[in-house]
# Entry
Amino acid sequence: MDSYVVMRVGSERYGAHVSQVRSVERVGDITPVPRTLNFIKGVMHLRGAIVPVIDLAERVGLAHASADEEDRRIVVADVEEMLVGMLVDAVEDVVQIAPESVEPPPSVVGGLEAVYLRGVARLGDDLLVLLNLERVFSAVETEQLKQVEKLVHG
Amino acid sequence: MHEEYLEAFLAESMENVERLEAFCLTLEREGSKPDLLDEMFRAAHTLKGMSATMGFSKLAALTHRVEDLLGTLRDERVRLEPRHVDALLLAVDRMRARIQAIGVSAKEPDEPDDDVMAALAGALRGGADVGGTREEDSKPFANLSDWANRAAAEGKELYTVHIRLAPDCVMPGVRLAMAYQALKASAILMAAHPAEENVMAGQVEATEAFAAVMVAPGEIDRVRQGVLDVTDVSSCEVSKVSESHSAPKEDAPRAEQGDAPIEPRVSRHANGSSPAGADLRRDATLRVPVRKVDALMNTLSDLVITKTRLATLVSSADDPALKEAVERLDRLTGDIQDGLMRLRMVPVETIFHRYPRMMRDLEHRLQREFDFVMTGLDTEMDRVVLEEMGEVIVHLLRNAVDHGLEPPEARESQGKPRRGIVRLAAYTASGHVYLEVSDDGRGIDRGRVLETAVAKGWITPEEGAAMSDESVYALLFRPGFSTAERVSDISGRGVGLDAVREKVEALGGQIRLNSVLGAGTTFTIELPLTLAILSALLVSVRGQVFAIPTANVDEVRRVTRDDVRHVQERPVFQDSAGIVPIVDLAERLGLGSRRDSYPQTAVVCRDGKRRLALVVDHVLDELEIVNKPLGRYLQGVREFAGATILGDGRVSLILDVRSIANPA
# Structure
């Protein structure tokens, strides 16, 4: 059985594999970094390290639904020796999912292209979309570079 | 084997070998001196004694022969000649290889030292064995470049292979034989060290081996995997040999000193007569991964923040004892911080010490005559950055000797001193470390550089004529540029100045060059002191706080409406030192539109000779900050050099003044 952290973004639920989750933090001060992509909210300080924070809702093209400020969290992922914080509307649970019950993702789920997904699992009546964080972040990295390039070359 | 003794033996014997090597160079430079030869004799004697005690009889025998030669020289039974030094250096190389091998396997390698012994005996007799033996020494791989050319002609590729067995391997001879067979299964074995026939005959107990193989393109991975599949093979490193040059660092017996396929167990220090022995032993026992130091550093900066908060709370209290305790805490945290930073810093000498020998060999090989001067050996810099710079400096030094310095006759005919000078200097200034390589050679011919650039279609002759020297020199760093008419085996390694620049820039530094035709060339590398605590000015722009390193700040001044002029529609102001462009930071960073009301607060920054006035809303404070990297994720953002955590826990971005001054 694999454990996943269940994150709520708008009305969707996303799962991040626990092995890739370093910690879950309350939302503190986030320093915006000028001239970066919109969904990059900025950087924060986590036990002495500087960690970039992305807004998962904006990343996947969803609005923050109820967005109760009290519930919002930053899920700090540790992917390929890089710490990245994901701003989510809430962290609900940690669930156990058997690998065999994970189905391949339909081509477009919740605004994210299938390549960003590990798969989809049933969670009671809901669907839990399992994220492929390596892909989500590396794609962000590439886009960020493109963005910088655009600024540079007009 | 007594493990604890072995460690000490390795450190001390390597130290003595380093001393011997440094003495040899002094001997060659300054001639025979009784004191010097005494010192050398003692170093050799100590080494001999230690080797014998530890049961490394071959090393002891070799050292004994060295001692003989030194004794003869000391007693002036023969006059010092260059061949004596050559033979001694040959022996030094072999001793070092032996000690390194012992470090790997805790055993003495089995190959005989007959060649070196003969060279030493020859030098003692006054025979001509030295030259011949030297050839002998590197024989297995002396033909690398020929083979590479042949391989290319046959549509194949030449690789050197470095095989290592697990140190606890029970039957190294058998395993090596199997590894050789694996090599031969899918590659043509050109040469091997130890020799193939000895290995196959079971006469070898070595735990490592070098080979040169010819393989079909794309096959090398399979070859390597075949070797790795042999039981007890712990590593197999392959490295491609390009055609058309013989690469001395790929000589098998020396590979240990080149790109370091073997990680030396004992770090090597230049010694001269400095009492660096204690340092050497400390280095040998304290190998800490950088990330562990970084983790500690992070915890520490957290501590600093907590301390600052505490200090804020206490400042309103009225308790002298409490205040004193906080002040003490403040000092102690500072001490820990300093100490931790120093953990990552090492003197440049740890890398520089190997250059005198390299330069000496270059001098001989290229038939140049020059003095090599190093200064600032105790300059400290980040260990990782320094290691990265090692190869870059090698390249620049080779360049200086090969392309910079003229042959002695040419120098004389131009009225220059026959002997040239090559300098390597290290120093720190205003938050940066500088490494400088300079020569007093022919300098860079602007005309020839432009010719090449025009020929490559990069610029038109008219553009070239209008270019400043600085821009002309910048062409040298472009990929694909090489004014070398011939590809020599010294500098023509397909590694150009563009690769040098890339490496320097990847470390957040930059490289400049200055040259006077006929008088010489200077390369200056400027590197940030990473992890450095730097002093910075905190400014606010539209409510956001940014840090500007004070190293970049000239002054803070008010700019009134009357001060502002326009040059090509860009605002500037003028002072006694010249014209300064005004940049509104809010606008530059996309935080808002340009401020229209006056007077404005401007931070006048300096990047080299250029100045730039950054308009900010307020200047808040000046304080010491810890520069933390923004990380891979945000590496593309050029405007910021890093970030720092302020006393209240908020993150502030550190401006990169250079990038702001030069929007690409």
